[in-house]
Write a structure and sequence with these properties.
de novo design (two linked rop proteins), 122 residues, elongated, mainly alpha
């Protein structure tokens, strides 16, 4: 694979993780404001932003060990995002349920991508 293709792939994943965090933020704006949701939303927003932030850190790593550590953190934050998404109360709003399901699917896909990167890097 050429460096250009690798750079493009890296950018795509950076953009994908950025879009995930943005989509989460858009989604939570529409949720019912219950006491539980307020707390879970805070956790979800942190975790979803951390996915991409740690991926960027991985790409700036000075060592392979540091790279793998940040990729593992991105995977962990993807998994945590899925957890918080599952806990949120949508108020039985079908549209919000569908949005949440799509975000859960994206979190799972990101977990799988980061897991694959870790396996290939070790």
């Amino acid at each position: 694979m050429s460096n250009e293709a690798e750079g493009s792939k890296r950018y795509d994943l950076e953009e994908r993780t950025f879009q995930f965090a943005k989509d989460v933020r858009l989604f939570v704006k529409a949720l019912p404001r219950t006491i539980a949701n307020e707390q879970d939303i805070r956790q979800l927003v942190r975790a979803s932003g951390s996915v991409g932030a740690n991926y960027i850190e991985a790409n700036e790593s000075l060592s392979k060990k540091d790279f793998v550590m940040h990729i593992r953190i991105s995977r962990k934050e993807s998994k945590e995002s899925r957890y918080w998404l599952r806990l949120l109360d949508t108020g039985e709003n079908i549209s919000l349920d569908k949005s949440r399901d799509a975000l859960i699917q994206e979190a799972i896909e990101l977990m799988n991508i980061f897991g694959s990167i870790v396996r290939k890097s070790e």
